Amino acid sequence: MRDLQHEHHAHVVSTLHVHQDADHCLEVVVLRGRASQIKELADRLIALNGVKLGRLTVASAGSPLP
């Protein structure tokens, strides 16, 4: 996951890693960019080995990207 995030560093705004217990972690990745690019990156993150549950939640700042 880290390698994919580094590969797409221009889209990664922030990450949060939480240890839920000895065997499970929660990873939140905040992304910024064009919807098609973000969806593709989210799909790749969700498909990674070891990801048990993944979901893309979309929010807009209300203004177009430069």
Explain the overall architecture.
The chain has a domain at 2-46: ACT-like. Chain A, domain 2 (Alpha-Beta Plaits, 2-Layer Sandwich). The chain contains two helices and two strands. The chain has helices at 2-7, 35-46, and strands at residues 12-19, 25-31. The longest helix has 12 residues, at 35-46. It is elongated and about 40 Å long. The termini are far apart.
How would you concisely characterize the structure shown here?
The protein is an alpha+beta fold and 66 residues long.
Q: What key phrases describe this protein's structure?
A:
alpha+beta, 66 residues, single chain, 2 helices, Alpha-Beta Plaits
Strand content: 15-25%
CATH topology of the domain at 2-46: Alpha-Beta Plaits
What is the fourth-level CATH superfamily of the domain at 2-46?
Answer: ACT-like. Chain A, domain 2
Number of DSSP strand runs = 2
Mean pLDDT: 92
CATH class of the domain at 2-46: Alpha Beta
Calculate Rg over CA atoms.
13 Å
Shape type: elongated
- N- and C-termini, Cα separation: 27 Å
Tell me what the CATH architecture of the domain at 2-46 is: 2-Layer Sandwich
**SSE pattern:** HEEH
- In the sheet with the most strands, the strands line up as 1-2
- Helical fraction equals 25-40%
Regarding quaternary structure, how should these chains be classified?
single chain
Low-confidence stretches: none
